[in-house]
Structures are given as structure tokens and as C-alpha cells.
Amino acid sequence: MEFSVSQIFIEEIETKIKIFLLVLFFILNFLIILPIFGFGDIINFFVYKLFSFVCHQSDSLSFWINGSKLAVCSRCTGIYQAFFISSVLFYFKNIKFQKTYFIKILVISIIVFIFTKIAPFFANLSLLNLLRWLSGVLIGIIFSYSIYGNGGKSGK
Amino acid sequence: METEERVENNNLTQNSKLYLDAPILGGLLMAFFSVMPVISIFNLLCCMWLVIGGAVSYIIASKKDDYIPRSTDGLIYGALSGVFGWIFNGVLTFIFMGLKAKKFALARERLLNMNAPEAERIVRLVDKFGFKMIVLFLSLGLIIFYLVFPTIGGALAQALSGKNKKDKVQKELPKEEKKGDEV
User: Which of A13, A125, A129, B118 sits between 20 and 30 A of B2, alpha carbons compared?
Assistant: First the structure.
């Protein structure tokens, strides 16, 4: 099964997908912090249930604000926040993709990820959550670099 | 400079193929593994199955014999596989729900027998909306993840494969033009 499409159409779709992803990640970041506003049980139930598909939502490994747990764990919070912020930066800065940078960030994030697995043996939980958040931030940057790294709003 | 502009214009107006079987296969893969019990737990690792599904759809498309490279393929095949994956996920979820209706009823009874206020609250919420409606709402809500993570997966696969498609096409075109001039 195949379709014939023009390159102009592909370029338009690329730009639209990039903008759409920015909007989606803005919504996701909003949904993550929604439980802290205390809109009620029903909304909280749906938000937690929705994010349970992608996150373990462990009490001890999540950030708590005003006595309410965020919808995802500290690492996922880092991923969503970093993806949104770095995507906005990459999109408007028109950064060119360089594989060496990509590999470097990837290696650093893997090292931090492994460190977060070892850290519980000698660090307290509050520090561990910050480390997990940092590893999430690096993963988020990698995700956004792979998408927005090959050009910003012009797609070139 | 003029040649570059002409090459750019040629690239923009030329038609290229978009394979649909690749995103369908990627979507089927991510939906199947996301719905399957036990295996679906890997989705807790940055939506692993969704990212893999998007990456697989790009890889399948790039392995085709008549595949013309483009810089946007990872994004497009990833996003398309996400849409198909979401549709398959909805269908498979309802099939699994039908198969496990008895188990869900048992789980509801167990929750009620626990005498825990939190568990009772959940059961009351489920009873209020109806189990099928809740599953439907959640399945609809999952589109947000099915649009985001497979797209990331496709883009990641392309970034790791290290092929800058646009450059290749642009380098190849002047040769064809030269040939045309010679004739």
C-alpha cells in the first residue's frame, strides 16, 4: 500500500506535526500539575488513570506539591517539562542536527539513568527524586533534539 | 545560487511515495504489546512499546526497495503509526474487556470487601459512569500519548540511523540535470 505525495505536502505536514507536538506537550504539562489544583475526585481519578498507562506513579518517587501528588513520577515530570521547554527553544532557534551532540547527550543520560538506579543505596529519597528528574530532563532533551534538531519552524 | 534554487524547487514539486503498510504494522505492534497483560508493563519505561512501534514503522519503510529518502520520514511514519496504533488499541482493549468481564466483576467484589475508603470511592466512581464508559473515555484520552511517543520513536530511529535524507536527494538531482543538459 503506497501513496504518491508531493514534497511540498510533506514539508507542510512536518511543520504541522512539530507545532502540534508543542501544543500536545503543553497540554500534557498542564495535565501533570492538574491534581494540585484540587478540582475534585472525578478529574483527579481520570488524570491519574490516564497517566497510569505511561507511568508507575509511585508515591515515594513522585513530587508532591501542596499535599497532592503530581500525575507522573519525577523522571516523567522531567521528560515532559524538558521536552516542552527545549522544543520551544529548538523550534525558534533553528538548530541543526549534529549526531555527535546527540550521541553525547544520549551517553550522559544513560549514565545518569544508571546512577539513579545505584543512588538509592547511598542517597536519601528527596535527592533521588531530583536525580530522577535530571535523568528525565536529559531524556526529554534527546527526544526533542531528535525531532526539532533537523531544523526549526522552516524545517530546513 | 540559481542552480541551488532550481534544485530546491525540483525537490519541492517532485512526488515521492508514502507507504501505508509500515505505519499499520508499527501501530499493530505497539497496540498489541500495550494491551497484552504483563508485557504492557514496559510502557512504564517512557512508553517503550509506543516508541518502538514508531521506530519500527520508520525502519520498515526505509528498508523498501523503491524508498526515496526524506528528512521528515521519521516524524511522518511515527505519527501515522501512532494514529493506527490508537485505533488498534481501542479495538483490542474492548476485545480484552469482553474476554475478561468475569475477572473485572470479581475484582470489583474484592475491592468492596477490602473495607478501604479509597477502594470504595473508586468502585462508586466506576459504578456512577459505568465501566464501559470509563474504558471508552480513557481509550479516547490515550490518543495524546499515541500521537506523541510514536512520533518521537520515528524521529529517534531516523536520528540514530544517521541518514540525512534531504541532503542525499539534493546531491543526486544536479547530476540528473547535467545528464539532461548533455542530451
Answer: A13
